[in-house]
Structures are given as structure tokens and as C-alpha cells.
Amino acid sequence: MINTIEQNGVVGAGGAGFPTAVKFKRTADTFIVNAAECEPLLHKDRELLLHHTGDFFAGLATAMQVTAAKQGYIGIKEKHADVIALLKKNLPHNVSICALRDVYPAGDEFVLVYDVTGKVIPPGGLPLDVGVIVNNVETLVNIGRKKAVTTKFITVAGAVKKSVTLEMTVGSSLQDALTAAGGATEKSFGALAGGTMMGRLAKSLDEPITKTTGGLIILPEDHFLIRRYSRTVKQTVRIARAACDQCSFCTEWCPRYLLGHPVQPHLAMRSLGFSDTALPLAGALFCSDCNLCSLCACPEDLDPRAACQGAKSAARQAKVQWQGKVTSAHALNTARRVPIKRLMQKLGLTEFVNHAPLLAGVVPVKQVTIPLRQHIGAPAVAVVKPGQRVSAGELVADIAPGALGAKIHTGIAGMVVSVGETIIIKT
């Protein structure tokens, strides 16, 4: 079964794209399904559970068998009563529903493991350190389908004519997804690839959709989030020096700090007063980039996350390591979660439709641009050449010898136009 998962190119579909076959070579007592989906406006996991229930449970059964997990949990927000009712009709005897509050960041792997098991994953550690393996919904659906991963489910939302969840061919463009959603409602707009909290400003709608693309959020060009994500590093540093009063709200709200980890964004902000870039801080190595400090906690509209990213990079270059031990979570850990409704108000998102029904079928496209690097580890190695004709589902890039990687297949039949950092195929 692990070999089949590897041959099909399955990677973590909800995060950085860790090759699933490699993760499943370890065993654990507990298996947790991350169905929290706490990014505002994103709904693909909910739609998958509703419309691909059979594939989901097939993938979960395989995952638990391979990892020898004795107990499974599905971490899903309690507000999804209809989904929970459907899941309960199909639950195996050793799988339970763990109803979560509608807060951010309930989907953070470390937060989820704590909420389900009461255990704190150590700083820099993995769920395996506390006997747990975690996978998200779409990854399990891909396992359950038992075929090569050639499509990606994404939610398209915000300033669009139809807020929808789509099944897109890997390598199709963000523009293809926007077109399938009826286009934008604004003449001038910006696009966030991923989500509003942990996504990024898309440089172009020609960017390809990969195995890890979670969503596409279209917002008016003058929206707060578009302006925030457009800031340069120099602007961030200049504003921080002028305005940060070291209130430490960014630290007090940090989900990892509340788990007892040594992440202290206010110290990263303080360091900007002494250098053009943040100084190396060992605690910053464990920042999860959830962006809560910058987009919600800071009363001055500053960017502590950017400071933490700089401190993290500097710490890695300086080979600084944290020396310490986490014994327990903060006493106010669960009390300082941020309600999604409040977060959406803060981000200026309440005017947009907050549901995204799944559009049946794969959105048809005539060209794909398939990146060779769309997972953690080494990029895949192309096994096709320009001028070669390929069939839908055919392997086009393989794992480099001895490397951590994943196989890549094409979702359309056609001719290979070019091979470089990407493989371009046209029908």
C-alpha cells in the first residue's frame, strides 16, 4: 500500500507537500484527520467530506492500517453539524469525531494535536514525537482514489461572481480557476494564492496550480490585505522602528507561545531597532507563520510575522539553536483563541460570500504548466522530452535517485512543449 501511495505521487495536500509514502513508513498509536479548515473563506475540506465521503473513508482506512494506528480522530469544527452527521453514519469502530471550536488557528498541526490529545509537540518536533500522525482531508481522499494525483481541489472566493470549490488539473493556471468562478467582480483586484492568513500575493494569474495550492482569494486592489501583502521588507522595517511600543500583544496571542514554545514575536520586532534585518533568535525557529500576530493581535498594524521570518532566517544562517524544554502549555492557551467571525471582521471579509459549493467534474483546460518542485525535498526529474506525446495520468517526472520527493503525472493528454523547471503540455 505504501508503494501504491508513492507510485501515485501523493503528498500532503494541505501544507508544504511532504511525500505521504515517506510519512507512512513510521507507525503511531493515534491517527488524526485535520478537517479543521480555519482559513477564512476556504471550504474545500468540507465539500470533500460531503461529496467524496467514500474515498475519504477508504483513504483513512488505508492510512490507519499502514501506520498501525489503534485509534483515529477526525478533528472538525462543531459548526459543521451536517458534515458530522454524515461522518457518524460511516465511522469505523476505532475512529471518533473531535468537535472543535470555530477559532483560528484550529488547523495548525500543533494546536490540533493538543486539542485532540492534550499533548504538546516539542519545539521543532513532529506529531510522531507524541505518538501521532496527522493528515488532512484531501490527502486521504487522494489515497482513497487509488490513482495518480493529477488534480487539486481549491476554493475560489472573495470578489468573484461565484464563490465555488473546484477540481483543477495540476498545472492549470490561477486564471483558469478564476474563469471557472465567473471572473472577478472588480476591474482592479489583487489575488491571494492559498488563503488570507497564510497565503501570499500572487505575482500573476498565470501561476500554475500545484498539489499544495489550497485556494484563490480575489480582493479589491485597495483592500487592506492586498496593501498589507504588498509591503516591502524596507517598508516593514521602517514602520516597525517608528511605531512598535513593545506591548507584546503579538507574543501573548501567538498560538505556539501559548503551547509553551519559545516564540516571542515582540523580541523579533525589538531587534529591528538595532539592524536593518531581524537579529538571529532561536525562538523564531518555531514560528508557524500563522500571521495572527500581524493581522489580528498588533494594535499598530505592524508586521511581527515578517520580523519572525527574518529572525528565523538569520538564526538558521548563524546556526543558532534553542536550548530548553517545554513542560506544559500556557494557562490561558484555550482562552486566547480567536473566533473566526471576529477574525473575518478584523480582516474586512464579512461582505463576501462565506460558502463555496463544489462544482462537479474537473474544470477542462487545454494547457498545463507543471512545476517540478511542488513538494518538500528535491524537485522531481523530468522523464519526458519536448515533442513527446503523453496520455492523461502518465508519469512525466520521477523522484531523483536517493532523494526525498514525489512522482508527478499529467492530468491531460497532449504534446510536451518544453521541459525546464516546469513541463508545459498542450492538448
- Count of helical stretches: 16
Strand content: 15-25%
Helix/strand class: alpha/beta
**Which shape, going by the Cα principal axes?**
globular
What is the C-alpha radius of gyration, as a whole number of Å?
21 Å
Number of strand elements: 19
Classify the helix fraction into a percent range: 25-40%
Poorly predicted runs: none
Describe the sheet with the most strands. Answer: 6 strands, mixed
Q: What is the chains' assembly state?
A: single chain
Account of the 3D structure:
- The protein is an alpha/beta fold.
- It has 16 helices and 19 strands.
- A six-stranded mixed sheet has the order 9-8-10-6-7-12, with helices on both faces.
- A hairpin with a 5-residue loop joins strand 6 and strand 7.
- It is globular, with a radius of gyration of 21 Å.
- The two termini are 33 Å apart.
- The model has no long low-confidence stretch (mean pLDDT 95).
Descriptive keywords:
single chain, about 425 residues, alpha/beta, 6-stranded mixed sheet, 4-stranded parallel sheet, 16 helices, globular
Write the layout of secondary structure elements.
Layout: H1 2-7, H2 20-23, E1 30-35, H3 44-51, H4 53-67, E2 71-77, H5 81-88, E3 95-100, E4 103-104, H6 109-117, E5 132-136, H7 137-145, E6 151-158, E7 164-169, H8 174-180, E8 189-193, E9 200-201, E10 215-220, H9 224-229, H10 233-243, H11 249-252, H12 255-258, H13 265-271, H14 292-297, H15 304-317, E11 338-339, H16 340-347, E12 358-362, E13 367-371, E14 381-382, E15 389-390, E16 395-398, E17 408-409, E18 414-419, E19 422-426
Parallel strand pairs: 1-2, 1-5, 2-3, 6-10, 7-12
Antiparallel strand pairs: 4-11, 6-7, 8-9, 8-10, 13-19, 14-16, 15-18, 16-17, 18-19
Helix pairs in contact: 4-7, 13-15
